[in-house]
Amino acid sequence: MAQIRSKQIKDFLTTVNWGATTNYEIPNTSDIKLYVDTQIATQDQEKDSDVARIDAALASEIADTNSDVSRLDGDIATEKGRVDAILASADADKDTFVEIVSLINSVDLENDNALATVISNLNAEIASTNSDFTRVEGELAAEISATNSEVTRLDGALAGEIANTTSDVASIDVRLGAVSGDLVDSVDSLEVALAAEISDTNSDISRIDGALAAEISATNSEVVRLDAKNTAQDGALAAEIADTNSEVVRLDGADSAMNLRINELEATIIKDVEMANEEFAGAGLQYALNFPVQDDNADLVDVFVNGHRVFIESVAGNQVGLKNPGYIVDAQDAVVFVYQKA
User: Fold this and answer.
1) Are residues 181 and 54 in the same domain?
2) Residue 219 or residue 15, greater confidence
3) 169 and 46 housed in the same domain
4) If we measure between CA atoms, which residue out of 283, 276, 334 comes closest to residue 300?
5) Is residue 96 part of a domain?
6) Residues 36, 41, 43, CA angle at the centre, nearest 5°?
7) Domain of residue 304, residue span
């Protein structure tokens, strides 16, 4: 039943394709009115366009005819003037047309021939104008007749469309009456379902509120615990920072002492950059170098026995004593001295 009601409601949506309607589509009244108004406006526009076109053509033809009449009036006025001049030159009044013709023939045969030509041309022009006017009247009458027929056809089509629309509206009214009862039942069912859904939603909201309050309480407890932990960690961190600062002070002192020692060594080395390298056959622990050691500084002497470094016991001038390496240094051993000369 719900599907049937949905289909019936959908039938009244604005989905009708007026170019290809079917028996299963029911337009709503606003669409019907819009369609009829559009058709009437289109027909009125076409009729107005036809009338305007006819009026323009008729006005153009009348203007052309008026122009021709004005030109003919000018020609007649010219010829009248010439005739009046001829009559004025006569020595006696001429009261009859015969006398006028006789006078013209006797006075100015050339003007007589010209007048005849003008009259003939005038008659031909008048005949042509009458023919054009008759043709225009016929075309205008035909156009008016065709327009009247078109208007009659459109009136009939519009009347038929209005009749069909009226019938559709009556059918829609009948179907709406049948659907109204189902819609009322559907609305009642929806109201009951909505009330139940609201009740369930309120219960869910109450449950969520309780859970949220419990979560907030637990979170607050955790925050208090973390604050206490952070306080303890802050104390430990402060102690660690104090120890680190003491270590830094100690390292700074050691670094200063090391820099002082390096400066002393650099000053000593700068005094004389000459290095000596001498090799002796092993002969115990006491050796006489070719040159005295600078400042008798043992740190400026390196000794290697068979490539193994041994330590210095004493330095006095060119006399250097070795510390006992734990084995006998004899002639089979190669003793190398690398030292800074004084």
Assistant:
1) yes
2) 219
3) yes
4) 276
5) yes
6) 95
7) 274-340
Written as six digits, the tokens of 216 are: 């907030």
Higher model confidence: residue 168 or residue 61?
Answer: 61
Is 255 part of a structural domain of the chain? no
Instruction: With cut-offs at 50, 70 and 90, classify the pLDDT of residue 6.
Output: very low
**Is residue 222 one of the residues assigned to a domain?**
no
Most confident of 91-100, 250-259, 280-289: 280-289
Structure tokens at 6: 């949905």
pTM of the model: 0.26
Structural element, H or E, at residue 136: helix 109-271
**Type of residue at 201:** T
- Output the CA angle 194-195-197, nearest 5 degrees: 60
User: The domain that contains 281 carries what CATH number?
Assistant: 2.40.10
Residue 2: the pLDDT is 44
Burial of 228-242, coded b for 16+ CB within 10 Å and e otherwise, reads eeeeeeeeeeeeeee
Q: Is the pLDDT of residue 81 over 50?
A: yes
Domain end, chosen from 167, 194, 221, is at 194
**Calpha distance 205→254 (Å, rounded):** 69
Instruction: With CA atoms as reference, report the closest residue to 320 among 334, 342, 303.
Output: 303
Report strand pairing: 319-322 vs 308-310.
unpaired
pLDDT band at 75 (very low <50, low <70, confident <90, very high): confident
